[in-house]
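Hey L., structure's done. Input below.
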Amino acid sequence: MKKVFLAAFCVTALCLGFQKINAQTTPALKVGIFDIDLMVQALPEYRGVDSMVQMYERDTLGTEYQLYQSEYQRLDSTLKADSAKGNIPATVMTYNNQQKQQMMMQLVYWQQIAQNKSDNYRATMANPLYQRVLTAYKKVLATKKYSLILKPNTYEIGFPVENMFPLVAKELNVTLPPGLTIDPNQALQENGATGGAAVPKTGTGKP
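Output:
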């Protein structure tokens, strides 16, 4: 019985000793909270991107949609007139009908087409801002040595997290909106949350 007790005591001591050594040698998990899209949208220059996108949607995409409508109506009228004549070559009728179908597909799926074009235009206009934020972000990463980077609303309570937005904003020399300056841990405690913190609001649309 004494031998069994002694063996159990030794195993327990070894386990406790291993856990203590492991805790001393294993670096603590350092987690940062950041979202490059939100940071870009917080830049003052992003309002200019919004304005350019609105002009593009109104002038370029609006004009393009009107052209599709006009061309569809012209082809439809031409086909009806040619059908009434009855002496138009079948190849011409087929070609005009194919063109009409193409215009119709452009109009039917215009909302999706226009959204894709608008998103691509926004990405092009905002690309210099993304490059600026990415450069500042990399500097913060090199200094703080985070183990893991998560976006707002993607982490759970159980380990401390650090808000990276103020650090990146300092590198960029810009002032953050209030929603991006909050301490995620404090926000969770105040809200009594059991999951991720709310995504901060920037007041601008997302690209």
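The chain has one domain: 20-191. The chain is about 70% helix and 5% strand.

-- N.
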